[in-house]
Amino acid sequence: MTVAVTYYSFIMMTRREFLRQATVAGVVVVATSFQLTHASKTATGAASTPRRAAVVQTVLGPLDVSELGFTLTHEHIGGWTPDFSRKWPESFGGKAGFVARAVDKLKAVRAEGVSTVVDLSPYDVERDVRFLEGVSRKSGMHIVACTGQHLFPPESMIARSTEQLTEFFIKEIEQGIDGTGIKAGVIKVATRSDGVTAFEEKALRAAARASKATGVPIETHTHARRRGGEKQVAIFEAEGVSPTRVSLGHSDDTDDIDYLAGLLKRGYTLGMDHINRGLKSGSQLPWQKRAECIKQLVDAGFVDKIFLSNDSEFSSSLLPEEARDEREKTNPDGMLFNTRKLIPYLKQIGVSDREIHAITIDNPRRFFSRS
Ligand SMILES: [Zn+2]
Questions:
Q1: Which is catalytic among the residues 250, 305, 333, 341?
Q2: Taking the complete model, does pTM exceed 0.90, yes or no?
Protein backbone atom coordinates (compact mmCIF):
# COMPACT_ATOMS: atom_id res chain seq x y z
CA MET A 1 0.00 0.00 0.00
CA THR A 2 1.31 3.44 -0.81
CA VAL A 3 0.24 6.83 0.37
CA ALA A 4 0.31 9.86 -1.87
CA VAL A 5 1.81 12.70 0.09
CA THR A 6 2.48 15.78 -1.98
CA TYR A 7 5.51 17.82 -1.18
CA TYR A 8 3.28 20.73 -0.16
CA SER A 9 1.18 18.65 2.21
CA PHE A 10 4.30 17.03 3.59
CA ILE A 11 5.96 20.30 4.46
CA MET A 12 2.73 21.58 5.99
CA MET A 13 2.64 18.57 8.31
CA THR A 14 4.75 18.12 11.36
CA ARG A 15 6.91 15.04 11.27
CA ARG A 16 4.76 13.58 14.02
CA GLU A 17 1.60 13.97 11.96
CA PHE A 18 3.32 12.44 8.98
CA LEU A 19 4.50 9.47 11.00
CA ARG A 20 1.07 9.00 12.50
CA GLN A 21 -0.69 9.14 9.15
CA ALA A 22 1.85 6.84 7.57
CA THR A 23 1.43 4.37 10.41
CA VAL A 24 -2.34 4.46 10.27
CA ALA A 25 -2.11 3.83 6.54
CA GLY A 26 -0.08 0.70 7.20
CA VAL A 27 3.08 2.06 5.66
CA VAL A 28 6.31 0.85 7.09
CA VAL A 29 8.32 3.96 7.75
CA VAL A 30 11.91 2.89 7.76
CA ALA A 31 13.84 4.40 10.63
CA THR A 32 16.86 5.16 8.53
CA SER A 33 14.82 7.51 6.34
CA PHE A 34 14.92 9.95 9.23
CA GLN A 35 18.49 9.42 10.22
CA LEU A 36 20.19 12.66 10.96
CA THR A 37 23.82 13.11 10.34
CA HIS A 38 25.48 15.71 12.40
CA ALA A 39 29.12 16.44 12.77
CA SER A 40 30.61 16.44 16.21
CA LYS A 41 34.03 17.00 17.59
CA THR A 42 35.93 14.28 19.34
CA ALA A 43 38.00 15.02 22.42
CA THR A 44 41.04 15.48 20.21
CA GLY A 45 39.23 18.00 18.06
CA ALA A 46 38.95 15.78 14.99
CA ALA A 47 35.62 15.93 13.23
CA SER A 48 33.51 12.78 13.26
CA THR A 49 30.07 12.13 11.86
CA PRO A 50 28.15 9.67 14.02
CA ARG A 51 24.74 8.78 12.62
CA ARG A 52 21.80 8.94 14.95
CA ALA A 53 18.34 7.85 14.00
CA ALA A 54 16.08 10.40 15.63
CA VAL A 55 13.16 8.02 15.95
CA VAL A 56 12.04 5.60 18.60
CA GLN A 57 9.62 2.79 17.92
CA THR A 58 6.35 3.18 19.81
CA VAL A 59 3.36 0.86 19.71
CA LEU A 60 1.81 3.25 17.15
CA GLY A 61 4.92 3.32 14.97
CA PRO A 62 8.07 5.40 14.76
CA LEU A 63 8.15 8.66 16.68
CA ASP A 64 10.68 11.46 16.44
CA VAL A 65 12.56 11.46 19.76
CA SER A 66 11.95 15.19 20.10
CA GLU A 67 8.27 14.26 20.62
CA LEU A 68 8.95 11.97 23.59
CA GLY A 69 8.67 14.79 26.13
CA PHE A 70 8.36 13.90 29.80
CA THR A 71 9.10 10.17 29.83
CA LEU A 72 8.51 7.57 32.53
CA THR A 73 11.18 5.04 31.69
CA HIS A 74 10.13 1.97 33.71
CA GLU A 75 6.44 1.12 34.05
CA HIS A 76 4.07 -1.81 33.49
CA ILE A 77 0.78 -0.98 31.84
CA GLY A 78 0.09 -4.67 31.47
CA GLY A 79 -1.97 -6.63 29.06
CA TRP A 80 -4.88 -8.94 28.52
CA THR A 81 -3.42 -11.92 26.72
CA PRO A 82 -5.56 -14.79 25.42
CA ASP A 83 -3.81 -17.06 27.93
CA PHE A 84 -4.66 -14.81 30.90
CA SER A 85 -8.19 -14.36 29.63
CA ARG A 86 -8.75 -18.12 29.46
CA LYS A 87 -7.63 -18.52 33.06
CA TRP A 88 -9.16 -15.42 34.69
CA PRO A 89 -11.85 -14.05 32.38
CA GLU A 90 -13.68 -12.15 35.16
CA SER A 91 -10.58 -10.71 36.78
CA PHE A 92 -10.36 -6.90 37.02
CA GLY A 93 -13.94 -6.64 35.73
CA GLY A 94 -13.11 -8.56 32.56
CA LYS A 95 -11.29 -7.29 29.51
CA ALA A 96 -13.49 -4.22 28.89
CA GLY A 97 -13.11 -3.07 32.48
CA PHE A 98 -9.39 -3.65 32.42
CA VAL A 99 -8.94 -1.67 29.21
CA ALA A 100 -11.18 1.20 30.40
CA ARG A 101 -9.25 1.45 33.64
CA ALA A 102 -5.90 1.57 31.86
CA VAL A 103 -7.15 4.25 29.45
CA ASP A 104 -8.53 6.39 32.30
CA LYS A 105 -5.30 6.15 34.23
CA LEU A 106 -3.15 6.97 31.22
CA LYS A 107 -5.35 9.95 30.35
CA ALA A 108 -4.95 11.27 33.89
CA VAL A 109 -1.17 10.84 33.70
CA ARG A 110 -1.12 12.54 30.28
CA ALA A 111 -3.17 15.44 31.65
CA GLU A 112 -0.49 16.08 34.26
CA GLY A 113 2.29 16.45 31.73
CA VAL A 114 3.69 12.97 31.09
CA SER A 115 3.74 12.22 27.39
CA THR A 116 5.57 8.88 27.12
CA VAL A 117 5.50 5.67 29.12
CA VAL A 118 8.03 2.90 28.55
CA ASP A 119 6.45 -0.48 29.32
CA LEU A 120 9.12 -2.88 30.49
CA SER A 121 7.09 -6.10 30.38
CA PRO A 122 8.64 -8.58 27.96
CA TYR A 123 6.96 -11.76 26.73
CA ASP A 124 7.33 -13.66 30.02
CA VAL A 125 5.10 -11.22 31.95
CA GLU A 126 2.02 -11.35 29.72
CA ARG A 127 3.10 -8.66 27.29
CA ASP A 128 0.22 -7.81 24.99
CA VAL A 129 1.18 -5.27 22.33
CA ARG A 130 -2.29 -5.12 20.80
CA PHE A 131 -3.59 -4.03 24.20
CA LEU A 132 -0.81 -1.41 24.45
CA GLU A 133 -1.59 -0.21 20.94
CA GLY A 134 -5.29 0.21 21.82
CA VAL A 135 -4.75 2.06 25.08
CA SER A 136 -2.11 4.29 23.48
CA ARG A 137 -4.52 5.31 20.75
CA LYS A 138 -7.39 5.91 23.18
CA SER A 139 -5.38 7.80 25.80
CA GLY A 140 -2.99 9.80 23.61
CA MET A 141 -0.04 8.47 25.60
CA HIS A 142 3.05 7.43 23.64
CA ILE A 143 4.00 3.91 24.70
CA VAL A 144 7.29 2.17 24.01
CA ALA A 145 7.12 -1.64 24.22
CA CYS A 146 10.10 -3.86 24.98
CA THR A 147 11.71 -7.07 23.91
CA GLY A 148 14.01 -9.02 26.22
CA GLN A 149 13.54 -11.16 29.27
CA HIS A 150 12.21 -10.67 32.81
CA LEU A 151 12.51 -13.22 35.60
CA PHE A 152 10.20 -15.99 34.45
CA PRO A 153 11.72 -17.84 31.50
CA PRO A 154 9.79 -20.90 30.35
CA GLU A 155 11.76 -24.06 29.55
CA SER A 156 11.48 -23.29 25.85
CA MET A 157 13.60 -20.17 26.37
CA ILE A 158 16.01 -21.61 28.93
CA ALA A 159 16.97 -24.21 26.34
CA ARG A 160 17.96 -21.58 23.74
CA SER A 161 21.50 -20.50 22.99
CA THR A 162 22.77 -16.92 23.30
CA GLU A 163 22.69 -16.68 19.50
CA GLN A 164 19.07 -17.80 19.37
CA LEU A 165 18.05 -15.32 22.07
CA THR A 166 19.89 -12.54 20.21
CA GLU A 167 18.03 -13.45 17.03
CA PHE A 168 14.70 -13.43 18.91
CA PHE A 169 15.34 -9.97 20.43
CA ILE A 170 16.42 -8.57 17.04
CA LYS A 171 13.34 -10.02 15.39
CA GLU A 172 11.09 -8.21 17.90
CA ILE A 173 13.01 -4.96 17.26
CA GLU A 174 13.19 -5.14 13.48
CA GLN A 175 10.14 -7.12 12.39
CA GLY A 176 7.73 -6.83 15.27
CA ILE A 177 6.29 -8.63 18.28
CA ASP A 178 4.06 -11.71 18.10
CA GLY A 179 3.47 -11.31 14.37
CA THR A 180 1.92 -7.84 14.75
CA GLY A 181 4.49 -5.57 13.12
CA ILE A 182 4.56 -3.55 16.38
CA LYS A 183 8.24 -3.16 17.14
CA ALA A 184 10.14 -3.08 20.41
CA GLY A 185 11.87 0.22 21.21
CA VAL A 186 13.96 -1.02 24.13
CA ILE A 187 15.49 -4.25 25.47
CA LYS A 188 14.69 -5.29 29.05
CA VAL A 189 16.79 -7.79 30.99
CA ALA A 190 16.72 -8.85 34.62
CA THR A 191 18.78 -10.63 37.24
CA ARG A 192 17.23 -11.81 40.45
CA SER A 193 19.94 -11.09 43.01
CA ASP A 194 23.66 -10.38 43.25
CA GLY A 195 24.53 -13.38 41.14
CA VAL A 196 23.73 -14.16 37.52
CA THR A 197 22.24 -17.55 36.60
CA ALA A 198 23.42 -19.38 33.48
CA PHE A 199 20.24 -18.40 31.67
CA GLU A 200 20.41 -14.77 32.84
CA GLU A 201 23.95 -14.57 31.50
CA LYS A 202 22.75 -15.76 28.09
CA ALA A 203 19.95 -13.17 28.15
CA LEU A 204 22.34 -10.35 29.15
CA ARG A 205 24.78 -11.28 26.39
CA ALA A 206 21.94 -11.51 23.88
CA ALA A 207 20.64 -8.10 24.98
CA ALA A 208 24.11 -6.59 24.48
CA ARG A 209 24.45 -8.15 21.03
CA ALA A 210 20.96 -7.11 19.95
CA SER A 211 21.61 -3.57 21.18
CA LYS A 212 24.88 -3.37 19.26
CA ALA A 213 23.23 -4.71 16.12
CA THR A 214 20.20 -2.40 16.20
CA GLY A 215 21.15 0.65 18.28
CA VAL A 216 18.18 0.03 20.60
CA PRO A 217 19.10 0.69 24.27
CA ILE A 218 18.89 -1.66 27.27
CA GLU A 219 17.06 -1.18 30.58
CA THR A 220 17.56 -3.66 33.40
CA HIS A 221 16.01 -4.91 36.62
CA THR A 222 18.72 -5.04 39.30
CA HIS A 223 18.95 -6.05 42.94
CA ALA A 224 20.66 -2.82 43.98
CA ARG A 225 21.03 -3.66 47.68
CA ARG A 226 23.29 -6.52 46.66
CA ARG A 227 25.11 -4.39 44.08
CA GLY A 228 23.52 -6.46 41.32
CA GLY A 229 24.26 -3.82 38.68
CA GLU A 230 27.98 -4.54 38.89
CA LYS A 231 27.48 -8.14 37.78
CA GLN A 232 25.33 -7.04 34.88
CA VAL A 233 27.76 -4.44 33.61
CA ALA A 234 30.66 -6.91 33.76
CA ILE A 235 28.82 -8.93 31.12
CA PHE A 236 27.84 -5.89 29.06
CA GLU A 237 31.45 -4.72 29.09
CA ALA A 238 32.70 -8.15 28.03
CA GLU A 239 30.28 -7.89 25.09
CA GLY A 240 31.52 -4.38 24.23
CA VAL A 241 28.22 -2.54 24.53
CA SER A 242 28.60 1.18 25.30
CA PRO A 243 27.57 2.16 28.85
CA THR A 244 25.65 5.08 27.32
CA ARG A 245 23.18 2.51 25.94
CA VAL A 246 22.37 0.95 29.33
CA SER A 247 20.15 2.03 32.23
CA LEU A 248 20.29 0.02 35.46
CA GLY A 249 16.83 -0.08 37.03
CA HIS A 250 15.71 0.00 40.66
CA SER A 251 18.98 1.65 41.63
CA ASP A 252 17.30 3.71 44.36
CA ASP A 253 16.73 0.51 46.35
CA THR A 254 20.12 1.27 47.90
CA ASP A 255 21.69 4.40 49.37
CA ASP A 256 25.19 3.04 48.88
CA ILE A 257 26.60 6.09 47.14
CA ASP A 258 29.92 4.38 46.38
CA TYR A 259 28.09 1.68 44.42
CA LEU A 260 25.87 4.19 42.58
CA ALA A 261 28.60 6.73 41.80
CA GLY A 262 30.88 3.91 40.69
CA LEU A 263 28.38 2.85 38.00
CA LEU A 264 27.70 6.46 36.98
CA LYS A 265 31.41 7.15 36.59
CA ARG A 266 31.63 4.19 34.26
CA GLY A 267 29.01 5.89 32.09
CA TYR A 268 25.81 3.99 33.02
CA THR A 269 22.44 5.62 33.56
CA LEU A 270 20.63 4.78 36.80
CA GLY A 271 16.88 4.18 36.86
CA MET A 272 15.57 5.73 40.10
CA ASP A 273 12.19 4.11 39.68
CA HIS A 274 11.27 2.62 43.06
CA ILE A 275 11.01 5.86 45.06
CA ASN A 276 7.35 5.16 45.90
CA ARG A 277 8.34 1.81 47.47
CA GLY A 278 9.69 3.96 50.29
CA LEU A 279 6.12 4.98 51.20
CA LYS A 280 5.54 1.66 52.96
CA SER A 281 5.58 2.02 56.70
CA GLY A 282 8.74 0.49 58.12
CA SER A 283 10.50 0.77 54.77
CA GLN A 284 14.24 0.45 55.11
CA LEU A 285 14.70 3.37 52.75
CA PRO A 286 11.92 5.97 53.11
CA TRP A 287 11.07 7.80 49.89
CA GLN A 288 12.52 11.11 51.08
CA LYS A 289 15.84 9.41 51.70
CA ARG A 290 15.78 8.00 48.18
CA ALA A 291 15.08 11.51 46.86
CA GLU A 292 17.99 12.91 48.87
CA CYS A 293 20.19 10.31 47.26
CA ILE A 294 19.16 11.64 43.82
CA LYS A 295 20.07 15.17 44.96
CA GLN A 296 23.48 13.94 46.08
CA LEU A 297 24.12 12.34 42.70
CA VAL A 298 22.97 15.50 40.87
CA ASP A 299 25.33 17.58 43.02
CA ALA A 300 28.13 15.16 42.20
CA GLY A 301 27.68 16.01 38.50
CA PHE A 302 25.56 13.10 37.26
CA VAL A 303 22.36 14.92 36.32
CA ASP A 304 22.57 13.60 32.75
CA LYS A 305 22.67 9.97 33.90
CA ILE A 306 19.45 9.69 35.92
CA PHE A 307 15.98 8.43 34.99
CA LEU A 308 12.83 8.77 37.09
CA SER A 309 9.92 6.35 37.00
CA ASN A 310 7.46 4.50 39.24
CA ASP A 311 7.63 0.80 38.24
CA SER A 312 3.86 0.84 38.61
CA GLU A 313 1.82 -2.20 37.79
CA PHE A 314 -1.76 -2.26 36.79
CA SER A 315 -0.90 -5.29 34.80
CA SER A 316 -3.31 -8.19 34.58
CA SER A 317 -0.76 -10.82 35.42
CA LEU A 318 2.01 -9.34 37.53
CA LEU A 319 -0.21 -8.83 40.55
CA PRO A 320 -3.53 -10.33 41.62
CA GLU A 321 -6.27 -7.78 42.33
CA GLU A 322 -5.77 -7.77 46.12
CA ALA A 323 -2.04 -7.10 45.83
CA ARG A 324 -2.69 -4.34 43.34
CA ASP A 325 -5.29 -2.77 45.66
CA GLU A 326 -2.83 -2.95 48.53
CA ARG A 327 -0.18 -1.21 46.46
CA GLU A 328 -2.65 1.46 45.40
CA LYS A 329 -3.51 2.08 49.04
CA THR A 330 0.17 2.65 49.82
CA ASN A 331 0.71 4.82 46.73
CA PRO A 332 -2.63 6.38 45.72
CA ASP A 333 -0.86 8.58 43.14
CA GLY A 334 0.35 5.54 41.18
CA MET A 335 2.15 6.67 38.03
CA LEU A 336 1.71 10.26 39.19
CA PHE A 337 3.83 9.82 42.30
CA ASN A 338 6.84 11.38 40.59
CA THR A 339 5.06 14.49 39.39
CA ARG A 340 2.93 14.98 42.50
CA LYS A 341 5.30 14.06 45.31
CA LEU A 342 8.85 13.32 44.24
CA ILE A 343 9.56 16.28 41.95
CA PRO A 344 8.09 18.88 44.34
CA TYR A 345 10.25 17.38 47.08
CA LEU A 346 13.36 17.37 44.89
CA LYS A 347 12.76 21.09 44.19
CA GLN A 348 12.30 21.73 47.89
CA ILE A 349 15.71 20.24 48.66
CA GLY A 350 17.39 22.27 45.93
CA VAL A 351 17.20 20.42 42.60
CA SER A 352 16.60 23.11 39.97
CA ASP A 353 13.92 23.21 37.28
CA ARG A 354 16.64 22.88 34.67
CA GLU A 355 17.94 19.73 36.32
CA ILE A 356 14.44 18.26 36.51
CA HIS A 357 14.00 19.03 32.81
CA ALA A 358 17.27 17.27 32.04
CA ILE A 359 16.28 14.17 34.01
CA THR A 360 12.73 13.80 32.77
CA ILE A 361 12.98 15.03 29.17
CA ASP A 362 16.54 15.42 27.86
CA ASN A 363 17.96 12.16 29.24
CA PRO A 364 15.27 9.88 27.75
CA ARG A 365 15.46 11.72 24.42
CA ARG A 366 19.21 11.15 24.21
CA PHE A 367 18.96 7.54 25.41
CA PHE A 368 16.28 6.54 22.92
CA SER A 369 18.09 8.07 19.93
CA ARG A 370 19.48 5.01 18.20
CA SER A 371 23.19 5.31 17.62
ZN1 LIG B 1 9.55 -3.32 36.53
A1: 250
A2: no
